[in-house]
Structure formats: C-alpha cells, structure tokens
C-alpha cells in the first residue's frame, strides 16, 4: 500500500497537488488524524507516528487515476456526464421548506421523507452557523434537516484557515465511525468533490462507507469564499447592500435575491477569484457519481432539477412524489427534460474545459520546475 511519503513524492513535490484536502479529509475520517493542510494549502504530516500506512491519502488524490476508473465502472458511469436514469423538475410540497431552500427544496423534502419512512436514520448536511458560515453536520432530527436547507458557502479565503478547517469542511470526517456512532443508513449530501471522495472510500471497501445509504450530489460551478473584501466587491458590482439580501444562488449566473423581490444577476466569472483553488481543477459539474444529483440550472425559478443516476436513487425520489415532493407540470412542454439535459451538458462541458486549461498550466509549470 502506498503511503503519504509516496503521495508527497508523486504529487505534492512535483507541483501537481490541487489543494483539495481530500487526503487530509479521509485521513481524519478513517485514520487517527496523521495529516493536516499546511499554511500554503498543501497536505503535510501533522504527526507521522499516528500514520497507520493505510494508503487512503494516496487513494483519495484526484491525481491518482486507478481508483477513478474502478469507481466509474462500479457506478456504471458513462460519458459525457455520468449515468442518467431520468431527469425531472420538482419542488417541495411544504411552503416552509421551499422558503428556506436554495431552489425547490427537493433535497430537504427528500431527506425528510426518507427519515419519516425509516429509510435513513440521519443525513450529513451543511448547517449555517453565521450569515456566510457553514459547517457539515450529522442531522438526525427533522428540525436539523430543515435547518440545513439552503445554500451555504465558506467565509475564509486564508490558506491558514483552510489548513485548519478545510478537511473538516469537506464533511467526510463526519463519515467517521466515531461520529456515526452505529448509524447504518445515513444520506450524504455534498458537492461533486465530496461525493467523489466518498465513492473512492466505498470502492476500497473502507469502513465506515457501508453506513452511507444514499449519495445526494449538488451540481457545482465551484465553492466560493465570501470574505469581507469579496462581499464589498460584489455589492459594488451589483449595486446592492448585503443588508437587503435574502438569498444568494448560483445557476448559470450568480443571483442575489433582495428583500424587495428584485433579483440581481451577475456573470459567474465575477466569482472566479473567490473560488477555492481546488475547484479550478474539478471536472465534475453534475455530481456524476451520486445516486441522485440536484441543481437549479434548467429548472424554472423555485424548482429543482433532479437527475436520477442509480436504481436506488430513482426509487427513493419516486417514493417522495405526492408525499413531500411534487413534479413540475410538463403539459405543453414534452421536451422539458431534453432542454434541461442540454443546459446541464453545456455547463458540464464549460467546467471541464476550464479544469483542463488549469491542469495543462499546472503540468507545464511542474515540468519547468523539474
Ligand atoms: C457550493 C455550491 C455550488 C453550487 N453550484 C451550482 C451551480 O453552479 N448550478 C446549479 O444549478 N446548482 C448549483 N448548486 C446546487 C444548488 O445550489 C442547490 O443545492 C440544488 O439545486 C438543490 O436545491 P434544493 O432547493 O432542492 O436544496 P435544499 O433543500 O436547499 O437543500 C440543499 C442541501 O445542500 C446542503 N448544502 C448546502 N451547501 C452545501 C455545501 N457547501 N456543501 C455540502 N452541502 C451543502 C444543505 O445542507 C442542504 O441539505 C450549488 C450548490 C453548492 C453548495
């Protein structure tokens, strides 16, 4: 089994590390916490004596292609954006869920239904801990799942802060046996990178991956750090005050919803400098290896696009219809799913192109340094 020393030699020292924190996150989840992110965002040993040489850090690295191929095969991934069993547009039946939610509240409504019907006994969601602060949390009660509804970003842009917290923010340390405390049917909600890292654990058959019953992926253009300076810049560009903002959202534009009901739309490029460094290398927009993927793109305002990817995901979603979720009336729009798919493919291709350009730059830089 390869160790962190190999990862250091093959990836970090060659300048190929994306600073995604996946290695540290898995080490924290499964090992004794031998790794941490340093001030520059690169992984390093926190305490070499705690390392059990399990090789998970190496296996988690997106620069390691072996597990990726196996993972994709296991999940019947197919080009260009993963397996698709069905595309629907839906929203939560409960107006309170819709009001708190990012789009149509389907993720929250699905989790509530799964909990009510005993299909899950908890869910890993993100909890808002301040206006621009989030924390991954294990929700085991309805109220906790409801509290998690909505769109949550990070605040810190500093690598020192990320070094301390990003592995934790990744959320995978919550899949630790210590935290799951014997729960065996937990749903994991996460961005594509989080779902990918978890699927690699599953491919390796590493405890406690069997505790996760369902992977709910979110479409993702990137995760952003909303520090003070960045917020001021956005407010100036959009001509609004943060005191008037009731909701922000990322679809094909960056949307700022104001108390007055107005929605200000800014080009997504304005967020580029606020992206987490690792997001520039991520090729997955549509959460391609989740059981179900969700996003706002393609759906009318207040509705969620739902892509079922595995039989388990499709069955779970269909079971919610008429209970906590309603489907968009497609009368007169028989091609709705096709149009949604087209938008999704376009957004996915754009993200992939961006990532490939960054990767080429990184590889060129690495070979110049050698
Ligand atoms: C960083 C980020 C970027 C996104 N980019 C896009 C995009 O470019 N295009 C697009 O169409 N959709 C994007 N989405 C997805 C979209 O914002 C909604 O999450 C999705 O449409 C589901 O909406 P909903 O109303 O059904 O979910 P809700 O019912 O509001 O539930 C959302 C769930 O996601 C969890 N969550 C929120 N933030 C995070 C986070 N940072 N990490 C892990 N879990 C989290 C919440 O705890 C909650 O359980 C993005 C989401 C995130 C978090």
Description:
- The protein has two domains: 1-64, Alpha-Beta Plaits; 83-225 and 275-359, Aspartate Aminotransferase, domain 2, CATH 3.40.640.
- The protein is 38% helix and 18% strand.
- It has helices spanning 4-12, 22-30, 56-60, 65-74, 95-100, 106-116, 142-148, 159-169, 177-180, 192-204, 228-238, 311-320, 336-369; strands at residues 35-37, 43-45, 86-92, 122-130, 133-139, 186-190, 212-218, 245-250, 254-258, 263-266, 292-295, 304-308, 325-327.
- β6 (186-190), α10 and β7 (212-218) form a beta-alpha-beta unit.
- α4 packs across α10 (192-204).
- The protein binds flavin-adenine dinucleotide.
- One of its GO terms (molecular function) is metal ion binding.
- InterPro entries: 4Fe4S_Fe-S-bd, 4Fe4S_Fe_S_CS, Co_F420_Hydgase/DH_bsu_N, FRHB/FDHB/HCAR-like, FrhB_FdhB_C.
Q: What is the gist of this entry?
A:
The chain is of the alpha+beta class and 370 residues long. It has 13 helices and 13 strands. Strand 8 (245-250) and strand 9 form a beta hairpin.
Describe the sheet with the most strands. 8 strands, mixed
Question: Spans with pLDDT under 50 lasting ≥5 residues?
Answer: 155-169
DSSP helical segment count: 13
* End-to-end Cα distance: 26 Å
| Rounded Rg | 20 Å
CATH architecture classification name of the largest domain: 3-Layer(aba) Sandwich
Which bin fits the share of residues in helices? 25-40%
Q: Specify the oligomeric state.
A: single chain
Task: Report the top-level CATH class of the largest domain.
Answer: Alpha Beta
Give me the secondary-structure category: alpha+beta
Q: What percentage of the residues does DSSP assign to strands (E)?
A: 15-25%
Q: What fold name stands as the CATH topology of the largest domain?
A: Aspartate Aminotransferase, domain 2
Q: Which ligands occur here?
A: flavin-adenine dinucleotide
Strand arrangement, major sheet: 5-4-6-7-11-12-3-13
Per the principal axes of the C-alpha atoms, what is the gross shape? globular
